[in-house]
Write a structure and sequence with these properties.
Blueprint lengths: L4 H10 L7 E4 L10 H14 L5 H5 L5 H8 L8 E5 L14 E5 H13 L7 E4 L9 H4 L7 H17 L2
Antiparallel strand pairs: 1-4, 2-3
């Protein structure tokens, strides 16, 4: 069944990712260089080093200081983070930093894999293409009256400590 943009957006909303923009592509397989993987690994390290302009998004990912530093220095990708192609190489995507984005592996990257696989055989495939280098679901980018999650946890910890000191 060929998906419409509305149906694709509804499907992503069902997967708890309603704020990820989509682009339509006609999946025409192209030959991929046999040495693509070493180039991809090198590109991932370059992409990680480019994240210094995404500090606000990284702050919302609750990385430790060491994970943060290893990531932006291009050394190590923290556990449960994935680097994905916006347009897969097999469909003509470029081996370029601008064709990559990062998201949580579970549940987002796994859901995006399922989202793309569900469209197998369609003439037009809707691909996720976040506006920024890092995809975060809408609920993690909004802070309510209590502030962001880190401030909330610190406030809760302080309240617990104070409660424990009361006679």
């Amino acid at each position: 069944m060929q998906w419409t943009q509305d149906f694709a957006e509804k499907r992503l909303s069902d997967m708890q990712m309603p704020n990820i923009p989509l682009t339509a592509t006609q999946p025409t397989p192209v030959a991929v260089s046999p040495d693509w993987f070493p180039k991809y690994k090198k590109l991932c390290h370059e992409f990680m080093r480019s994240l210094t302009d995404s500090v606000q998004e990284l702050a919302l990912m609750n990385l430790s200081r060491d994970e943060f530093m290893e990531l932006i220095m291009g050394r190590t990708l923290p556990v449960n983070l994935s680097i994905r192609f916006r347009t897969p190489l097999l469909w003509g995507g470029a081996m370029d930093v601008d064709n990559l984005f990062m998201c949580f592996t579970f549940p987002h990257s796994q859901c995006l894999d399922r989202f793309i696989i569900e469209q197998a055989g369609n003439e037009t495939v809707w691909l996720p293409s976040p506006e920024k280098k890092i995809y975060l679901p809408l609920h993690s980018t909004l802070a309510g009256n209590g502030g962001n999650a880190t401030a909330d946890r610190l406030s809760q910890f302080a309240a617990t400590m104070n409660a424990g000191r009361r006679p």
